[in-house]
Amino acid sequence: MLGVVGKTKNDSFYQQSFKGCQAYAVKYKNVRCIYDGGMDFQNIRAQVSVVKKLVKQGIDGLLIATTDSHFLVKEVLASLKEENIPVITFDSDLLPEHAEYRLAYVGTDNFAFGQALGKYVKNNFVLRAEQSICIQSGHPTTPNLNERIAGIRFALSQQKANKMKGKQGWREHPSCPMFSLGKRDLALEQLESVLNFRVPPIFIAVAGFAQFNENYMAVIEPYKKQIDSGELIVVSADTEPMQLQALAQGLSSINIGQKPFEMGKLGASLLIDYITKQQLPDKSHYYLGFHHCTPETATTCTTNY
């Protein structure tokens, strides 16, 4: 039995990864995948509790997207290593100093993904007078999101350690980055507040956040003409079905998406190879690609499961 744990449970991204696990597990009559996660937002304690519950249920391996590497290792992954329950991280890896607690990482190269977000902004939009950048993230300790922020900063200012302060013309708004903790109502409130700044910044979300809110289209519809004209710019990671629907209606400027289904499928294969044959993964990182979706290509740019 393989456990699949996302940062949040009610998230179509992680649900697609679960489906990928299931798609691979059907090859084996004695293997099944079970899915869980924190219910509503990126809660580090809820994630640990979920993993402990799955261990009690008898999982043989764990596929997990890290919310807080230090807390996850200290509270549960160290004991999983002692019990020889193998772990594959997906979407969000452990920090490098914790690599011994997982067999491999499967997912996006998150620094490169952040660079792709930044490069798209740099190559396709022109800063107006006094305009800045506003990055929206989830939990402030989440490794993959911090890597994406670093990638954006490097693409725009050739440095990744600090907030952009004008190098090469790019700077971050004093109120940003904004951390939504993955709370969809808060994320949407943050986005709408940015759109109403005196000089609205270019908004870059490093995951779906506001666009995963079922009220996103209704709330953002009044800004459609400004988004169409480029007066307002909304850039978002991920290309889940509800995001592509909003994009097709002109309620997002660009979405750059990942391959969650493939993450689950490949992660399951690595776990099963280890559990059944004691075969270690060939490498530490298995990077999957990403894709660009625009309002014009929203119906054809990717496949969701």
TrEMBL record:
One of its GO terms (biological process) is transmembrane transport. One of its GO terms (molecular function) is carbohydrate binding. Pfam families: Peripla_BP_4. Residues 3-278 form the Periplasmic binding protein domain. Transmembrane segments: none annotated. It is found in: Periplasm. Its main location: periplasm. InterPro entries: Bact_Solute-Bind_Prot2, Peripla_BP_I, SBP_2_dom. GO terms for cellular component: outer membrane-bounded periplasmic space. PANTHER family: ABC TRANSPORTER PERIPLASMIC-BINDING PROTEIN YPHF, D-XYLOSE-BINDING PERIPLASMIC PROTEIN. Belongs to the bacterial solute-binding protein 2 family. This is Sugar ABC transporter substrate-binding protein. The lineage of its organism: Bacteria, Pseudomonadati, Pseudomonadota, Gammaproteobacteria, Alteromonadales.
